Amino acid sequence: MPTLRKVHGSENRFFILDRTQFDPQPSLDQISQLAVQLKQSDDERFNDIDGILVVDQSTHPDCAGKMTVVNADGSIASMCGNGLRTVARYLAEQTGQTKFLVETQDADLHVEQAATLAPAVPAFGVEIAPVRFHAADFPFAELGGDTVLNRPLPQLAPDLDFTAIAVPNPHLISFMDHTTLTGELQAKLGPYLNGENPYFPDGVNLNFAEILGPDQLFVKTYERGVGFTNACGTGMTATSLAYVLNHDQGDFDHVVTVYNPGGMVKVHVARTGQDYSLRLIANATTLGNWTIHDTDLLEGHFDQGNYQATTEEAAYQAWVKSLQTK
Length: 326
Ligand SMILES: N[C@@H](CCC[C@H](N)C(=O)O)C(=O)O
Hints:
Elements lengths: L2 E7 L2 E7 L9 H13 L10 E6 L6 E9 L4 E2 L3 H15 L3 E5 L4 E11 L2 E7 L23 E2 L8 E6 L3 E6 L2 H4 L3 H9 L11 E9 L2 E8 L3 E3 L3 H15 L4 E9 L2 E10 L2 E9 L1 E7 L2 H5 L7 E4 L2 H13 L2
Parallel strand pairs: 2-3, 4-6, 11-12, 13-15
Antiparallel strand pairs: 1-2, 1-18, 3-4, 4-5, 6-7, 7-8, 8-17, 9-10, 10-11, 12-13, 13-14, 15-16, 16-17, 18-19
The structure holds the ligand N[C@@H](CCC[C@H](N)C(=O)O)C(=O)O.
Ligand LBFN2T5F binds next to strand 4, helix 2 and helix 5.
């Protein structure tokens, strides 16, 4: 019987579904339907997820596995930063390796076990790549140019500047004061840009950010295919790059601390010549393990499975609490 692992990175919650445990293996369409069903379930152990991370074998050299990201609405995403840390931990435990590559839709990405954040709060560092800025890579349209780099978009909001960066999933980023960030704009703009609209036909992850101090940010994300989330790893990474680009030109090397509604991450942002190097480091927490017969899972008989919670969440929450008292 397959076991799905429930995980989170900064409280961005997922089930890891390892397709190699299934015979026959479910199709991506079946897994998309499963994501929607879990989200709609009235069982609180299952309905708080932001998606499913599908693990497959990889045929690429040095890759310990392949990750495919299925959003909560069943759509497919090219990347997930918080999810990749949890998949890295899963594959590390399966293979005994601490440093390896994971195949994702657009790139084979370096992942590595990092120092624990606190007792029972394991962490991983993951590469976020490739970095893209051009309209065709999102796509976006009718925004008056091929890139959006810290400039007004009066079509979207009269008083804000925006930056568009794909890593490679698409992100729209704006820095603002606390009052604007906690106001109602993101709840209006997020659904608008992820419904039928002339600007982002495939939708976009919308990141609102506040600068707390030098190399310190708070980021809140309205995610494509999900809605408001506790944290978006690629969003925090793209926002850290946008922050550094607004302050430094030429070569740079920063470690940005990013707070989010679910915790905190570190983002290493470096540029040498035309090459960007982005690395996201934070927790990879296992919330529970759910063993269920494959037909019960795929037919939505979720009460037939056996879900066992771990004790890691208490340790994670204690670590989050310790951040507030620092
Ligand atoms: N939560 C993720 C991003 C997941 C994909 C996103 N919803 C999209 O459709 O691009 C992260 O941690 O990066």
